[in-house]
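Good morning C.,

I know you're traveling, so I'll keep this short. The sequence:
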Amino acid sequence: MIILLLLFGLFPLTSFSTNDGEYVEQLTQRLVPFYEKLHQNPELSFQEEKTSTAFAAQLRELGFQVQHPFGGFGVVGTLKNGEGPTVLLRTDLDALPILEQTQLPYASKIRNKTAQGLESGVMHACGHDLHITNMVGVANYLKQHKNRWKGTAMIIGQPAEEKGAGAKAMLKAGLFKKFPHPNFALAMHVESSQTTGKVRLISGPVTANVDSIDIKMKGRGGHGATPHETIDPIPMTSELVLSLQSLVSREKDPFEPAVITVGSFHAGSKHNIIADYALLQLTIRTFSPSERTRVIEGITRRAKAIASAYGAPEPEINSSEDPVPSVINDPEMVATLKPVITRIIGAKNILDGHPSTVGEDFSRYGLEGVPSVMVSVGVLTEKRLEQYRKKGHVPSLHSSTFYPSVLETLRISIPVLGESAIELFNPQDGRLAPLKSPIKG
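The tokens, ready to paste straight into the viewer:
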């Protein structure tokens, strides 16, 4: 354990000042080395052993009762502070199979193998390292301000968000049976193209339903020189790929967002061999249950119809058994938290907007009857954003060149989540006085 703590540069993060602004500033300065160690040592989904151990150690140092591992390499930390609501705060832990190209002095050099056995880099390209660091900061913030709230803080480190499977694993392990059932749930995500100091707070759907579909279009293989003796699956499947695009443009309600992306198309092995089959892998993004059903039924109908037109056998179509549902921000919680966030960053810095078509399994806690809110925080300084714009490209999440402006982001994200949690512990009690000193952006 001592070696592991040294590896991650861990140490108790104690209180520094009763002045909120100064306290947050000193806390964020102390958290940056922890972030850099996390960034250098990423772990893939369901492999987050060292990451989760490091996170658990920080919570224990702060006096949380910690169970680890839980539901894979999950972490559950609880801090009881008298009688009151239970507020769940979630961070995700896993990284992505991406070779980092940021050129940072603390860039990841980790290599691993994917589920398909291919060698890959490993990188925190979705900001989960910042999520973890922020949650350590929020845990410190809540301990520092124990005189302002009553109840139970329940902080969880969730594995395998990138697979859409970690929340389900923790719930299956008994998260809401072995621990108090939360009254509220909060989470944060970074927003890669927005400046630090900006927070997006949306009421209603925030992310999309995510379905994965595998299609095997069956043909009849043979020699490339005699195609008339075969049923060539490549032109047949190519026609399906194009047909799926008109499913969105011509069959979908134009007021209902949906995305169909063919992420993988595999067929054949040699120049002069017509394959027996072709394989497609699709990702489907929708928001309403009715549109989700319509799109999936349309995909199935078109695949079968095209196969029939070619005189081919009926295709095999397999949908993901457990799609990732849409995150839906509770409108009442949003209305409660908006004044809290406004007093920290100002009304002009709170962004509205439309939901994103990405997936997030934070949604599963809401489906268990817990009112939930996920906020998005900007992570680029104005200078960096301007530099990217001049180059004509702002790195997105899951990009090999994405990285956040850490210090500037934490100055905002820690008090935003910390104060939001405190408000949920004390709903409608009028505690909306300004912080003692402003938070620097």
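Safe travels,
E.
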